[in-house]
Structures are given as structure tokens and as C-alpha cells.
Amino acid sequence: MTVRKAWVVGGAVLGAGLSFVMLLVVGVYVVAGNLANGVGGATKALAKGSVPAAYQALVQKWGNLCTAINPALLAAQLYQESGFNPKAQSPAAAQGIAQFIPGTWATHGIDGDGDGDRDVWDPNDAIPSAAKYDCTLASYVKDVPGDATKNMLASYNAGAYAVIKYGGVPPYKETQNYVKTITTLEESFAAPVTRVDPSKQAAGAIYYAQKKLGTPYLWGGDGTAQDGGRFDCSGLTKAAYESVGVTLPRVANDQWNAGQHPARDELLPGDLVFFSDDLTNSRAIRHVGIYVGGGYMIDAPRTGAVIRFDPIDTPDYFGATRVTEDGAKALPTTV
Questions:
Q1: Which of the residues are catalytic?
Q2: In this structure, is the dihedral angle defined by the CA atoms of residues 112, 159, 138 and 49, taken in order, positive or negative?
Q3: CB atoms within 10 A of CB 135
């Protein structure tokens, strides 16, 4: 939804049509289907830029406090709670980057940076306290059967007593949804350890975007009749994936967390590709397009331009996300 530099595209690419895109989709997905092995089974390191640089070392350090958590899981919780906003305050009086309520902070807040105070508004205290609280909850339910991380998350949402009573994640819809949300978001903060599986909806999203080539850009445009069928960058990607049943957030930096992050040499058609002036912070992302293969994307670049093919290998290239339905569903509605 933000303006980025305009990049010149060669005439041959601009003249490419549906056959160019669909050949890439079919060809690349045949290869990907043979190579994809999924992810999992290894310690989760943070994906590049997924946590703002100011907090990355804290999350990496304290995310390894106990075996029930890891840096990507801790990052997912902080993102879900506050969007990494250290000044966040909820109507329920939850405070700071980890959204502690005063009573919980009084019991579980720690002096993470050793400066002599416990400040809920200071990420140097709040992030270590969030990790410590997770590990304390995990210790309460350590003898409960099942996955220790899921039991810890269920304790966070429903209380340790409920987890002990039911011998695992209790049959509360809210709690089950919370556990699924955080464990799904965890994958969007983790650096993949193997090739990321292809997205099932990618070809349909590309097809939608392909039909919009030549449409004038409109800041804030969602493609509605009121917008004259025009889009901005994240409006186009949102509409493209909505056409195949996947609902993305409205702005680019939130769309980043809708799935795992393939490396540049593992990109597949349909991946969302992102651009930023700050390559250390996913919250600073300001542009997004849909990758079509061959180093090109379809995007709505800027005011005065039209939806078109653009190269992705530019100095402001941040990274990519392979959108999944579960990943999109896990994203908070406001961060």
C-alpha cells in the first residue's frame, strides 16, 4: 500500500502474455512437486528481518530459555500480542510489547536487563519476562501428556489447571484456536530448514493478477467499483488471493507473515515478494508484488503507473512469503 521506486522493464517482458505466466507456473510447479519436502523437525532460527532489529537479539536469546519455546514461537507471540509495539495498551489494560496485565506483571515480570527495575514498557524487561512466563507455565504442565509447547500455549490461554484437568489442550474452541494460531504464526517467523512446499492457490492468484495488467494504480485501491477497479500494491495481492479463497491483511507488512519465507533461489510463481528501505525489519516493508517466475513479478507500482511486470532483483528487495490458507487465517486482524 506504499509507494516504492519505479523500475524499468524491458519491452520483451512487458509484451509477455498469459502463455509466459502459465508456462512458468506449470514448469516450475512440476519441478517443485518433485523437490518439496516440507519443513519441520529442527530448531527454529529466526527468518531474516522477521523481528525488528532492535528486538532480534533479545528474542533469539530468550527464545531459547526452555525447551517448550523457541525464538520463532516467542516472536509469534509478541507479534500476535502487540505487533512489536512497545507502547501498545489494550482496553483490558494489557501493557507493552508482551501485553502483560498488571497482576500478571507483578508476579512474573523480571528485570531482564539488570538495570535495577522491572518496567513493563521496556522491551528489555518485557521480552525476557514473556519468555520466563512461558517457561513457568510449561513447568506447571510438564507432566501432562502430549506436546509440551501446545500444552504451554493452552495454559497461557486457559490456565494450567484446565490443561491438567483435561490431560492436554482443553476442548475450548478459543484455546484450540489460540494454540493453532501461534504455532502457525511460528512458521512465518522461522527460517526454513528445507524447501518450502508449493502453495496450492498460487496459480489462481497469478491468473487474477494477470487479468489486471494495464489497470491504473490507485493509492488505497481495492479494485471495487468505487475505486474504478483500480488497486494499490497490497490491494492487488489481497484481491488476487481472495479470488482463490485466501483472505490476507490489507497492508503489505502484515501480508509478510502469511506463510513461510523461501530463499531467493527457491521462489515459485505465486509467492509474494516484498520491498523495503530497511532490510532488517519486516514492519518497515512498503511494497509487495506477486512473483511470476524468471525474476519478474506482477505489481501495482506507484501513482501514475499501471499494473505491470517488474523485476524483483532490486536493491530494496526484502524477501518472499509463500502464502498458505492457515498462515493467512492465523494473522491478527489488528497489529
A1: 81
A2: negative
A3: 16
